[in-house]
Amino acid sequence: MLSPHRTVRRVVGMTLFLLGGCGGIRAHHIFNQTVSELDAGEEPWPMRAPQAGTTVRVLGEAEVPVLEGENWFAGDFEIEAPLPEGYPPPTPPGCIEIKTYPVVRRAEISGEGPTSLGMGRGFWPLFNHIKDRDIAMTSPVEMDYRGMTDDAGHLTDQRGEWTMSFLYRRTEQGPTGQAERGVRVVDQPQITVISIGLNGGYGMNRVNQGLDTLRDTLAKQDRWVVAGEPRALNYNGPSVPMRYRWSEVQIPVKPANAIASSSTGSTR
Fold first, then answer.
1. Is the peptide bond before 140 cis (omega within 30 degrees of 0)?
2. Which one of 3.20.80.10, 3.40.1190.20, 3.30.420.10, 3.40.30.10 gives the CATH number of domain 4-263?
3. How far apart are CA 246 and CA 79, in angstroms?
4. 45 with 224: CB under 8 angstroms?
5. φ and ψ at 81, to 5 degrees?
6. Rounded to an integer, what distance in angstroms lies between the CA atom of residue 158 and that of residue 207?
7. Could you please report the per-residue DSSP string of 26-59?
8. Phi-psi bin for 235: left (phi > 0), alpha (psi -120 to 50), beta?
9. SS3 label, residue 105
10. Which residues contact residue 118 at a Cβ distance below 8 angstroms, ignoring those fewer than 6 apart?
11. pTM of the model
């Protein structure tokens, strides 16, 4: 378990970079392997969703992450806090995977307008919530973006709303429902996503870069279709050098044949 002091430093820094509140982030912080240059048609795509807690690599050559104790490692990258129980392994920078997340209990808070303002409206209520309930900090911090896509297909602060979430380690920890300071505790349903692993700075520009690559990759195959709005998972805080900060950008997906089955009345 992280010490309270280390937890405060890590979460404050993670949230600042997550929200794009630090002006030092630049577009040239790119992932080590340029996934967009790979040919999506060269790799097999699964026909159905992976089981909860598992992942299928569709692009990228990085080694599979290794779990040592409670920390995940992938080459030079490390996640220094535990993931919720049952979560699939993180996607290494430079790779794209289809993965299914189990139900997870999380404390969340939502807001509108610039995500950079979420530091006050999102982080402190969430941090005080887990502190008051003696919930150990986990990784990642998750950001969901609803209705924030502009006409060009990019996320913008000018519309929609965002939700920031701190994740519980286990679903049986504490009650669900409305909590203090605008925080709500919910059990997020199981979800299947296409995910790209990134390294470098966090923030809206970085998320849009990842989304562009994911959409281009989906366009080159016909087995999977978009099934929801994007989200970002951010794993590291400011003690980790910029180039080694690990994150994922994800889009919910479902098999294309599920649409065909639904249209023909099949219950498979």
1. yes
2. 3.20.80.10
3. 8
4. yes
5. -135, 150
6. 16
7. -TT---SS-GGGS-GGGS---SSPPPTT-EEEEE
8. alpha
9. strand
10. 15, 19, 111, 162, 164
11. 0.83
The pLDDT of residue 267 is 38
Please indicate whether residue 24 or residue 88 has the higher confidence score (pLDDT): 88
How far is 120 from 265, CA to CA, in rounded Å?
A: 48
Closest among 162, 170, 232, 154 to 197, alpha carbons compared: 232
Other residues' Cβ atoms within 10 Å of the Cβ of residue 250: 26
Query: Token pair for residue 261?
Result: 């089955």
Percent of the chain with pLDDT over 90: 67
Residue with tokens 């807690």: 53
The amino acid that residue 113 corresponds to is: G
What are 102's two structure tokens? Answer: 């189990």
List the domain boundaries for the chain: 4-263
